[in-house]
Amino acid sequence: MIFKRIGVGRPYPDHGLSSRAWAKIPPRQIRLDQLVTTQETLHLGTLLAEDSTFYGDLFAHVVEWRGDYYLETGVHRALRAALQQRHVLHARVYSAED
């Protein structure tokens, strides 16, 4: 199993974080099998692209809410990590409140 669960959409409340706010959160390692995805499909071209993080944050964005870790951005990075036999992903984790 790669992910804890495949989700559809974001069940947590809108956090309103900007790119600048995300950048202030220090990255940490999180296990892939703890993550719940927020999208059920991916684009193969993005998965295989060597420069897929060139224009964005180098780290995935994860929202911790009600005991689960939701992978908001970075599903392609996470899947790439799994294909490379890695069990962890470096991500910025934001703890959301109800």
Provide the low-confidence segments as ranges.
none
Distance between the termini: 29 Å
* Gyration radius, in Å: 13 Å
Which word captures the global form? globular
Total count of strands = 6
How would you characterize the largest beta sheet? 6 strands, mixed
Percent of sequence in beta strands: 25-35%
* Helix and strand run: EHEEHEEHE
Number of helices: 3
Mean pLDDT: 88
The neighbouring-strand order within the major sheet is 1-3-5-4-6-2
Class computed from helices, strands and strand pairing: alpha/beta
CATH architecture: Alpha-Beta Complex
The CATH homologous superfamily is named Conserved hypothetical protein from pyrococcus furiosus pfu- 392566-001, ParB domain
Helix content estimate: 10-25%
Domain count: the total is 1
CATH fold group: Conserved hypothetical protein from pyrococcus furiosus pfu- 392566-001, ParB domain
> Under the CATH scheme, which class?
Alpha Beta
